[in-house]
Amino acid sequence: MPKVTFLPDNKTIEVPIGTELLVAARFAEIQFDAPCGGKGTCGKCHMRIVKGQVDSKAVISPGLTKDHYVVSCKSFVKENDLTIEIPKQFDPLSGKFAVDSDAIKLVDPDLMPRKWQYNPLVYKNYIEVFPPKPDDGLSDFDRLTRCIQSEFGKIDVSCTLSVLKKLPGVIRKENGKVTIMLVRESGKFHITDIEPGDKSDLFYGVAIDVGTTTVAVELVLLPEAKILSSRTDYNGQVVCGLDVISRINYARTPERLDELRTRVIETINNLIVRVAGKFLIDRKDICNASIAGNTAMMHLLLGLDPENIRLEPYTPVAYQVPFLTAKETGIDINPHSWISIAPSVGSYVGGDITSGLLCTSMATDSEEINLFIDIGTNGEMVIGNNDFLMCCACSAGPAFEGGGIEFGMRAATGAIEKVEIDKVTGKATFQTIGNVKPKGICGSGMIDLIAKLYLTNWIGANGKLDRSGRSPSIVTEGRNAFYILATAEESSMVQPIIIKELDIENIIRAKAAIYSAFSLMVKNLSIEFDDISTIYIAGGFGRFLDIEMAIVLGLLPDVPREKFKYIGNSSLTGAYMVLVSQDYREKQKELAGKMTYLDIGSIPGYMDEYTGAMFLPHTNANLFPTVKKNQ
Hints:
Elements (H helix, E strand, L loop, with lengths): L2 E5 L3 E4 L6 H7 L18 E6 L2 E3 L5 H5 L2 E3 L3 E3 L4 E4 L36 E7 L11 H13 L3 E4 L1 H13 L3 E9 L2 E9 L7 E7 L3 E8 L4 E9 L9 H7 L3 H24 L8 E8 L1 H8 L21 E2 H4 L8 E4 L9 H6 L13 E6 L2 E7 L4 E7 L19 E7 L6 E5 L7 E2 L1 H13 L18 E4 L2 E7 L10 E4 H24 L9 E5 L1 H4 L3 H7 L10 E3 L3 H11 L1 H13 E3 L8 H7 L12 H6 L1
Parallel strand pairs: 1-7, 9-11, 12-15, 15-17, 18-27, 20-29, 21-23, 27-28
Antiparallel strand pairs: 1-2, 3-5, 3-7, 4-6, 8-10, 10-11, 12-13, 13-14, 16-17, 18-19, 19-20, 21-22, 24-25, 25-26
Helix pairs in contact: 10-13, 11-16, 14-15
């Protein structure tokens, strides 16, 4: 078989003829970004052929062809040996999550579990089992059960086979002094583990948010519901695709599906090591996990085939996953721990949303109508109060994560995140993450840029750049134009960072999908935006969103700014609530049952809403009076 050597890692492997270069890189354990999931649509998985030839089926720019670059997901190994250079890509440990910090709670304290509501699914209890007596006819399990019932009342007790196997030795090691790990559910006790001595104070849980871009983990001391440590990192799957659809496309073979599962499990376990290691906690003392994430991420976490999520009639394997054990999932805590996964209500409205709603007044008896928005590669939103909940999802695409933008990138070191535009010259000044030379622009930076180009009249409502020649930063080439955001001297790319009109159009399409979705929901309820009491903005992207510029763009409605409330990673906070309180777990199930899913694509008038939102900020300027006033 041909040998493929990857530089600069100098890794060599043998692969069959016809193997994709992207697949070969995966076999060699090379970390390499494929934002579109290997469909060949983004053109960002470039590799340079140093020696040998490949069968390439993708068209790329003449400059890259001249330098012997190919698109790896559309290039295949031939019969000759190859030497391939991997260009330096993003550092997955850099950027917003380079420095770990405890999670900041932005949720109203009145919505959080109170002390009297601390009631986790899993407990550790110390008991003393009386010794066997001649002719009493009681087994070891009988005696254990009677001791539990003497403390908690006449209640059914069951256990796992592993507990039965350990029971004789454990129960006699310290003269009947044992600590049991048990699940209290539906009036029954289910013993999942047993150990000798009193270990009841070593009792922890983890709340986990599995996002498309990032994964977050909180370590919680369960008896006190106290968050000890929080850590966040990029989801290891990002190199296989930036958005949900790209991941689903990548998972088209069993091997790739298993790779995606392995990548996210490794991310979770690495974060658990970090939060537990900070306090020298043995991971076997972590007895419970509560996980939230969108429907597709839960499928990939569990190794479930996600293909039908993207195909009509968009049917997932399951909306509500039964309790699983840590051993079954691969999560590195006590292997007998039960794992609780937040319920989904649709293929694109998942457990991250049912968890997030716990952080809003929609989870209370409030009659005020509120709107919940989670902006990311998908836009998910819920509107309602204590009487009703209407939800929908729209495909925003990866533009807000830097996908579909020629110089787009995630919010990592070197990404332009803030921009100012000179009204006279049109030239940009910018701020980057890490205060280093720029190598691209992230989603929040794109919103800032487009909004300020619009406010300074260098871009029209249709997203087209000013072609009068008044600004040296705007270059016209035939029918096309682009904006020079950073010169070659200013950038770290040894080439200018430019924004094409197609890039601007991709952002406008993404914002139009989101705005038209919640606008359609509001109209279907025969209300106005002014009737909404609070607009909750959730998710990592929302954390860095400039509300004012988002309104100029037409992404958010032009309502009094005090109505907007950022609630941070509400998916993680909701997972924490469920972890520490079964009351909140029941509340989450109740909210999921109340949610009515609206298929916006099938509703008459949706295309009119979408088309109207395809301008800055909107074709109906009266919907954005403050933008009109400030322009």
